[in-house]
Structures
1.
Amino acid sequence: MSDPTPGTFRARADRRPEGLVIVAEGELDLVGAPALAAALPEDGDDAVIVDMAAVGFMDSSGLRALLEARQASLEAGRAFAISRPSDAVRRVLELVDLTREFEVVEAPS
C-alpha cells in the first residue's frame, strides 16, 4: 500500500477467510472518520477486522469512529478486532486507557 497524501484517509474492505478485513491508511481524524464508517458492512455476520498498520495519525474523532464501528459490529452480532495498530493508534488508545476495549489479532493473511 502506498503512503496516502497527508490529510487523507482511505479504508477498503476485503473479504478473507478470517472475516471482513478493513484496511485503513492515512489520518483517522474528523475528516477521515466517515470513510471508516462507510467501509463497515451493513449486514452479514462476518467478523470485522480493522488493519491499522498504515494509520499515521488518529485523534479523538478517529477514536470515536473506531469505538462506534466496534459497537455497531457487536450490536449486529459480529466480532470486531483491530490488527497491527500503528504507534499513532497505540499511543491514543493508551492515552485514554482504552487498550483493553479492543481485541487485537494477528495480521490478516
2.
Amino acid sequence: MHLCIYEDALADNFLPLTFFRPVYDLRCGVMTLREKIGHGVPHTGMTLHVRPFLADVLREQNHGISVNRLDAACCLFVNGRIVMTPRAAVLIRRQKSDLLFVKGDEIVGACLSGRRLDDIKGQVGTGYPDFSAFADLPRIVLDVTLLVHPWDILSANAAEIIADHNLIGHGISSRAKIHAGAILAGRSRIAVGKGSVIGPGAVLDAREGPVVVGRDVRIYPGAVLEGPCAIGDGSVVRIHAKIYAGTSIGPVCKVGGEIEGSVIHSHANKQHDGFLGDSYLGMWVNLGAGTTNSNLKNTYGTIRMEINGHSVDTGRIFAGLIAGDHTKTGINSTINTGTVIGPSSNIFGGGLPPKSVPAFAWGGAAGFETYQLEKALAVAVTVMSRRNVTASDAYKDLFRHVYSMTAHEREHFTS
C-alpha cells in the first residue's frame, strides 16, 4: 500500500530545527522519525507531505519519492511526529479498510481510499491533511509517543537508541579496526560498522545500554562512550571525548569534550573541550572551543524555552540549547539554561547572551546586529563545500526564504 508521511500545524513547534527540514526528518535515537516509520511500515510507494516552502529542497534530496503530490488508489497516512514502534507498525500495516489511527483524542493517521482519499489529495498539495471530517470511521488506538516540542525528542532519545539497536543493530563488523588496547564492556550490545576505527584506550561501555557506531567512524584514543549512545556514519570522536548516555551523534560530525543527553543532527562540529548537555543541534552548527551550555537552573526548577514566539514550560529540570542550522559560537562562549538560537546566528564575546536569539543575528551579551543575508549565505556555501556538499539553487532559495520568514523577529532585537 502507498504510504504518506505528513506534517501537521505543530511542525512549527519544532522551530528553529524545522526551518530547513520537515519534522519527520528530525533524529530521535539512531534513526530519524521518517526512517523509523519507513522501516516499520513496508510500502509500495511513498509520498512526503511538507510545508510548501520546503518542497523543492525535499524533492532534490529524495529522488523517486513524491513530494506534496499523491496519486494512489489507497493510502496509509502517518503523522510525522509519531515515534514509531514495532507494535504500532504491525497494527498500521494490517489495515485494509478505511479507518483512523488515534493517540488519545488526536487523529495521528488514517487508511483511506475512494472518495475519502480524493477529499484529502488536494490538501496534501496545499495545506495540512485534515481527517476530522471522517469522524464516523472506525478507530485504531496506537500506543506511541507523539512529539510536541524539541525537548520531547531529548526525553525519548535514550529509549529510542535502545529500540533502534534492537531493530537494526548488527554487532561488530569484521571490517572494523579495533585496537587491542580498546575496552569493549558489554560487547554483545555494541555495534560497530565496517570501516570504523577504534583507537587504543577508547572505552565503549554498553553495560547500561547499547553503543551503536556507524560505518567509517573514527574514535580516537582515550574517548569514552557510555550507552545508550549512537555515533553516525563518517563521524569523528576526538581524544578523551566523554559521550554520556542518551546522546545521538548523526552522520559526518566531529565531536569532543563532554556531551550528555543530546542530539547532534548531522554535519556539525562540537569537537573541542566544553560541555553540551540536554541539547539539540541542527546541521552545519559549529561550537567554538570552550563553548559550554548550562542545562540546570540553580533553583532546580523546571525550565522554560521560547518556541515559535511563545514561552513554554518544558516540564524538565534539565534543558540546554536548541540551535538551528548554521549556528556558530565563538571560543569560550557561555550559553544559558534553556536557550534557543535561530539558524545562521553567530554568538561571541563575554557574558551570557539572551535565552532567545532570532535567526541571522550577530553578536552576544553586548548586543546584536543583523547578519546580512548574502554574507551569511556565502559562508554557508563555503562550510557545506568543505564537507563535499553543494548548496543547490533550491537550497539557496530556501536560505533566503528563511531570512525573510524571520525578519520580524529581528525588528526590535538587532541594531
3.
Amino acid sequence: MPATAEASTPSTVLVVDDNDANRTLAQGALEDEGFRVLLASGGAAALEAFSAEKPDCVLLDVRMPDVDGLTTCRRLRELPGGDETPVVFLTALRDVDTFDQAVAAGGDDFLTKPVNPAELVIRVKAALKLRQMRAELREHYELLRHQRDALMRVQLQKERLSAFVVHDLKNPVSAMDLHAQLLLREAGLSDRGLESVRTIRKEAQQLNRMILNLLDLAKGDEGKLVVALTTVRANRLVEGVIEELSITASVRSVRLESEVTVEDIRVDAELVRRLLINLTENAIRHAPRDTVVLIGVCPAHHGRVELRVRDSGPGIPPDQRERVFDPFVRLDHERDSNPGSRGGRGLGLAFCKIAVEAHGGSIRVEDADPGAVFIVTLPAA
C-alpha cells in the first residue's frame, strides 16, 4: 500500500501515454510502490477508463496523436469526479508556454521527460496528498497552488534567460581570444605587452570553457548531452591539455607531466579534452609550488580505460569526496581561516561528472598520499 493512502485498498493511477516504453516505465515504478495502475494509449481511451474506474490520480502525456493531453484534461474535468482528481502532465517540452497551457487545461503538476521513476512516484504521492489537503483545506490549497505555479514560471523564465545570456556570451569571448592571437603576432610588442596578451588569451579561454560548462550542465540536467564517439590518440589528447595549460602551471611553479600507457581511446574528443583541462586546472590550483601534476591514461579491468589526474595538494577528506562534484561547493566552512583546506570552485568538476556520465562512465576521488587523484573510468570501446 502506498504511503499516500490510509485505506486498506491501494490508490489507483491512470497512466496515459501513446508510447509503450513510457507506459511500461511508469507502470513498473508505481506498482513497485503498491499502486494499482491502469493504462491508456490515447485521450479517448483515457476518458473511457476514467469514467469506468474513477482513478485517484492521472498521469497524462501532453503530445498524443488522437486526442492530445490538454484536450483530454479539459474533457476529464467535465466528467463526474473529474474536477477533484489530480492530473500530472508529462511532457518533453520544458518551456513557459507549455506550462501555461497545462495549467489552463486544469493540470495539477508538470513533469518533464525523460521521467525519473523515483521522481514520478514522489510527484504522484504529492498529488494524492494535495488532493487530501484540498478536500480538507480547499482555500489554503488554492493559495499554495498559485504560489507554486508562480514560482515554477519564474524558474522556467530564469532558465530561459540564463540560456540566452550564456549563449550570447560565446561570440564576444571568442572575439577576445581571436584579437589576443592577432596581437601575439605583432613584432613590436614588448615583453611586458606579450605577457599581458598571453594572460588575456588564457583568461578568455578559461571564460569560454566556463560558458561551455554551463551549456553542457543544462543539457545534462535535461538528459540532452549526447556524446559523439571517435577514436582518439591518447598521448596527443594529453599533450594538447599540457600545452594549453602550460602558462597556468608555469605561473604557479607547477610542472605538468604525462603517463600514457594506452594507444587509442574511443570517446567524445572535445568533451574529454575539456574534462581533462578542468581536472588539471583544479589540480594546478591546489598543488604546492615546485611539485608535479601527473596526467595519466591507463588500461583498467574488463577492457575499460582510466584517466587519472594527480596532485600533491592537501587532498580531500573521504566523507566530502562526493560533494566536490556539486556546483560551487565549499568543502570546508573554515577555509578562510585555514589556507591548507581544499574546496571546490565554480562548475568545472560538476561538468566533469556530467561529461563522464554521458559516456556511461564514473568519476571518483582517492588519496594520492599526499594529495588527491581524480580517476575517470570509461567503459570498454
